[in-house]
Amino acid sequence: MDKLIVLLDADDTLLDFSKSEREAIVTTLKEFDIPVTQKIVDRYVQINLHCWKLLETGRITRAYLDRLRFDMLFEEFGIVGKDTVAAGAAYRAHLTQKGHVIDGAIGFLENISEKYRLFLVTNGTEPTQTVRLKTAGIDGFFEDKFYSEQIGCAKPYKGFFDYVFSHIKNFDKSRAALVGDSLSSDILGANNAGITGIWFNPKGDAVDGAASPDYTVKGYDELEKLLDELDKIKRR
């Protein structure tokens, strides 16, 4: 029987995106001589999340996302005379250098990497994520990595997963599970693709929206036990 195929999201599932994001925006603001306040940093985080939701629903392109978040931020705070395209590029460059791993992620990957086939599936860009994964020390755990920008289609769209499935040797939907922190991207994507969706939800948030996780876990120990159980179930 083939090994269980585990598709893993990157940001806020394995990598601490929230920490990286805040460090990158602070560095970007300083580079552009913009006063750094908690209010502007917090607002950027909200705007960035909003822009990613627009991307996930197909309302903007990945290229436009970089500029839009700074268009919105600078307009709201009355910041003039600053190039939002340059700010977007600077932010991405700084984010690339921020490869923080979530506590416990490396041990989790070490424990499951021999048992299962691991693949990375992310809406992040390949240049940014490649460096961050290496910095975090987890790039070598995956049999392959899939980036929406290269595929031309983002999670949660079925086209993204059709591409992924067609590029995994001996892929079997009945032996596959997707693990991710986002209901609107990862879990809805798993629903659309017809595979098991596991919601990585350490904050204990309530289910909101159209996505329906098959399972919900709060940490890596719980996730590893669930994967072991799924492996047994899917072998029957």
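^ that was protein a. below is b, sequence first then the tokens
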Amino acid sequence: MIDRYMLRYFLAVAESGNFSRAAKQVSVTQPTLSAGIAKLEKQLGARLFDRDTKRVALTPAGSRFLLRARRIAAEYDLALQELSDAPEPRVLRVGLLRTIPTALVEDLVARHRRRAGGGEVLELLDGSERDLAERLDRGRLDIALTVIRPHHARFRPEALRSERYLMVLPAEHPLANLETVEAEQLAGDRMVVRRHCEALPEISRFFAARGVRPSFLLKTTDDARVLAMVRAGAGIGMMPESFSDPAVRFVRVADFDLQREIGLLYAAGSSALRYEASPFIALVRERYGRSLSARGAG
């Protein structure tokens, strides 16, 4: 491997025709320059200069190498210029509510990699509603994709989509083909509970008020595990409809009309103009602008 300093020494001697002038040109002593040229000749296995007391001339090998050396040096300088001219990518710190479907997040990140072109890089953080709000308040996040609440006004909320909480049934469940089921019809089923669900208190009160207290198959914070248990036919659960999965059935529970508003929250005190050119925010708006049926698993 040829070090760049040896190319600089070689080009200086070739262009000046003199070791002393070349040494001054590259700001080294003449012995240092001579040692560098000798090392280069040893690596190449060829003598590059004919030296006598009056002049320094390129050998035939040196003349051939000069063409390559100039090209290498020019490419190196061009690469340095391009790096110095390239703007630093903007870092967007994004908070993600834990109950945003992983498939949706995967789609957003994959699309962002193709669209942003290195101009914007993401730092993603999963969290609860409270955790994300606290980080926005402290300036630790730029935006959060989360549930929108009335008390979030300080974060300039941008609502994107409302989605219902639906009962998830195994495909072979006797009620799977119904559009709406009564809470009482589910009393004999075992329940898979999403412990991190922001609607869990409302769901529990709803069923308790109707005398339905199902036994529990699983309590978990893993949404994928909830769907896995339902696909296995072992239990039922309640989830936002954005978790739609073709292997299970999502049905409405009569008189349970709770919905959640998903949207973007912006860091307190930040300027709206700061985010207008963000490819990620544009993708989030596009993704949530589609109909739920068009989003498939996300």
